Amino acid sequence: MLDPHAARDRAAALVERARRAGADCADAAYIADSSESIQVRLGKLEDVERSESEYIALRAFVGGSSASIGSSDLGDAALDELAQRVVAMARLAPEDAYAGLAPGDCLATGPHPELGLVDGDEPGPADLRALAEAAEAAAREVAGVTNSEGAGASAGQGVFALVTSHGFAGAYATTSRSVSASVIAGEGGGMQRDYAWRSARHLADLPPPEEIGRLAGERTVRRLAPARLASGPMPVVFDPRVGGSLVGHLLGAMSGAAIARGASFLLGREDEQLFDSAVTIIDDPLRLRGLRSRPFDGEGLPTAHRALVEGGRLTGWLLNAAAARQLGLPPTGHAARGGGGAPGIAASNTHIAPGTVSPAGLIADIADGVYVTELIGHGVNGVTGDYSRGASGYRIVQGEIAGPVAEFTIAGNLIDMFRALTPADDLEWQHAINVPTLRVDGMMIAGD
Fold it and tell me: What positions belong to coiled-coil segments (predicted)?
């Protein structure tokens, strides 16, 4: 893996090759990552894994046509061939009126913000094994836990570099650290499983492994002997570890590409009161040590803190350069680069601002409801907003969390769900999408 400076230089050299081969303009992205993970089960080492990948992608434009190509071979001969081939491909490609590099006057200029994305202390295999063993031991010590699916710890690092032919060059490095545990409670047909998992840029930002393991064990034991729910409408309360999926559906529908295709349930609703006026949803790519923080986007545009929903209303779409041209709007710095091909669209660190009521207060007036801790399946229609997913969790009876329930489906429409959404005040920063406990009234339950 190249360091950020060398990665930027390599991408710049590839862009220059494309220009010499006849491209009118071009950009190149270098993407590399490596990770090492340790898995233990029942106190014994079960698996050691290390993976590394390195990839450079070139996108070239000839007139109104473009092509993309990539390679894991970064040698000079390979890059020479890459540049020649992508230009030849672009000359044969159909024209696209919306394709092109981001506007030059919108590009980020250095120095790029320092976001603390690199942990200078690299844990070794022995350190990772100790973390995994501590997490599993704590989980197995919880009364009622009968078996283990294992615990793991991992450490990774990555480098991203982007260079364009019209003046942008940038690169940054990242690290990742994670600890997880998954255990089983009960016997035979009554067995239940659950897990706990945390990830961060810095090891110091993770809870102690014993806390992660204990949480996994406690969650598992609480699921024993689940009952069934009766079918009908009732309030649904989403635990923070699953409530973030609702924001994920919103972000997908806010993608400029989906709007331009007419394939979003938000189409034509940009001026509507989508949420209660107290709801605010923030996208913050500049959050220090954030899991999706980035100093610039996948096309070289600056990134910035933005309220996606303010006063319950959308503030606009998420746009890369192509979607912005198609919709006649300025790009928003949400271009995302994966492997080859044109940039996609993605948000960064996103959260729903906390409300003013505690989780206990949020459910206090629910006579009969359900608290969801797990969602199953992918029954969400991004075009209509229709929502139907399998779930499990706990009954809410007379304002209190009661026994576990399983094998039921929750259904509604995302537009109606957003309008009925109320956040609690217990927001914590644990994931790329963070939400407090969320209550949605009027959902349909399909149970017995």
Answer: none
